[in-house]
Amino acid sequence: MSLPANVTMPLRPPPVKRLAAAAVLMVAACVGGYMLTPKWQAVRSEHQRLADPLRDFTNPQTPEAQLSRLQEKIRANPQDSEQWARLGEYYLYRNAYDNALLAYRQALRLRGDNAQLFAALATVLYYQSGQHMTPATREMINKALALDAADVTAQMLLAADAFMQADYARAVSLWQNLTGCKLAASEPRATGRGH
User: Which segments of the protein form a coiled coil according to its record (predicted)?
Assistant: First the structure.
């Protein structure tokens, strides 16, 4: 059956449910696509960092990263005594005394007799023994001072040990020698008692 030209068919209303579903799918696809981009990951990571209450206290250079870098440098040049010494220092500051000793001894083998390395070994031995002056510690200090009588680390160890042994006069004398300041007997003391 044909319709006269002037008669129009009523328009069907658009399928609202289908349009709404298509709009939701498009929005979801856009949001999902954005979430997969590196920019979103960076934004999310920064948001998490800012939400961390300890963010101002954390060191971006983690100890694990420091250790990895040191190990990479040593692998690249195993004859670099300076990197071995840095590795020893890394372990010393983390109370890993056995590893610190190994690293410092390797640095000493590579560099030869060196006051700073003997003093570093003495430091490790001193703290490894619970801040007690052992014969091995004393030997390393003596070697350091034989090479450099003004080695600060060796002198500080002697002063610290004197203090730990309650030999305060010797500790003060050693510390004064290190700082280059001596109080004359007539100078007022910090206690305000004078002489």
Answer: none
